[in-house]
Amino acid sequence: MRYACIAALALFAMAGVAPDAADAENPAPVLTVYAAGSTTGVLGAMLKRFEAETGQHVDLQTGPAGLMREKIEAGDRADLFVSANMAHPQSLHAQGKASAAAVFARNRLCIYALPAVGMTSTNVLDRLLDPKVRIGTSTPKADPGGDYAQELFDEADSVRPGATAALKAKALAVVGATVTPASSKATSQGEAMLERGTDVSVGYCSSRKTTPDLSVDKVELPPELAIKADYGMAVVTTSHDPMREAAAGKLALYLLSPENQTLLAAYGFSAR
Predict the structure, then answer these.
(1) How far is residue 111's CA from residue 149's CA, in Å, rounded to a whole number?
(2) Quick one: which of 3, 207, 208, 262 is 20 to 30 A from 268 by CA?
(3) For the segment 41-50, what is each residue's pLDDT rounded down to a tens digit?
(4) What does the alpha-carbon distance between residue 103 and residue 75 come to, in Å, rounded to a whole number?
(5) Nearest residue to 245 (alpha-carbon basis) of 82, 79, 90
């Protein structure tokens, strides 16, 4: 299936007029990429390299992947969609709005805690269940990050019966409800958590930056609670423009190239 999806992207790349075949009379179109907010850093780096190498201009727009999918369904023009899960691009494919989805990258859940919480991988469930510890998550359905948090809470029952209900009752969806995030003066994740009234945040192990945020403790989940996240990518076909689809297919293959996949680790992702 993995190779079939990549082959489908290759077919788009070979169809129509690819960017390097464009000329003054048929300039390459500016491509629009809709992507999960968590890919902002790594995709920005990849696309900067792509533009420098090809001269093809790309407009990157990021936000909660569920809401970005809804924008495409509502008629927004996008050429490539990169989601924090496989379900959203697969849904567009099922509706005839996108190519088959290929795995772009892999991620996993981590917990970010204010240092005062004293959270470690060995006491993570104890601290999450502490009535005094306030848990922040992203918004389920609107953002896959929120869905993965709910999956984590569901897994908790297998470790400690009754934990699922307790965690879901106390967790607050503090981000991911809108495409444009609320304005904030926070300059670090710790400041943002204090601003939102939370002590811990359930999020991705990846980062938008290549330098660590020392305002919080990044806690890996133990194996029995580990949640993995596969990021899907698909060419959007709603433009019905062979030239745009060919350009988007070429970009998709570029992002899957070994040279670009090596960039993922610097941002906390794993290669597909």
Answers:
(1) 10
(2) 3
(3) 999 999 999 9
(4) 24
(5) 79
Interatomic CA distance for residues 138 and 263, integer angstroms: 25
Per residue in 17-28, pLDDT (tens digit) is 454 545 555 667
Number of H helices, E strands in the chain: 10, 9
What is the 8-class DSSP label of residue 78?
Answer: -
Q: Name the 3-class secondary structure at 191.
A: helix
- Per-domain boundaries in the chain: 2-106+230-267, 108-228
Q: Please state, as a whole number, how many other Cβ atoms lie within 10 Å of the Cβ of residue 259.
A: 10
Distance CA 45, CA 260 (A): 9
For residue 84, the one-letter residue type is: A
CATH class of 108-228: alpha beta
Determine the straight-line distance between the first and last CA of the chain, rounded to whole angstroms.
Answer: 13
Topology, domain 2-106+230-267: D-Maltodextrin-Binding Protein; domain 2 (3.40.190)
Give per-residue pLDDT as tens, 98-142: 999 999 999 999 999 999 999 999 999 999 999 999 999 999 999
The model's pTM: 0.92
Q: Residue holding tokens 């930056």?
A: 209
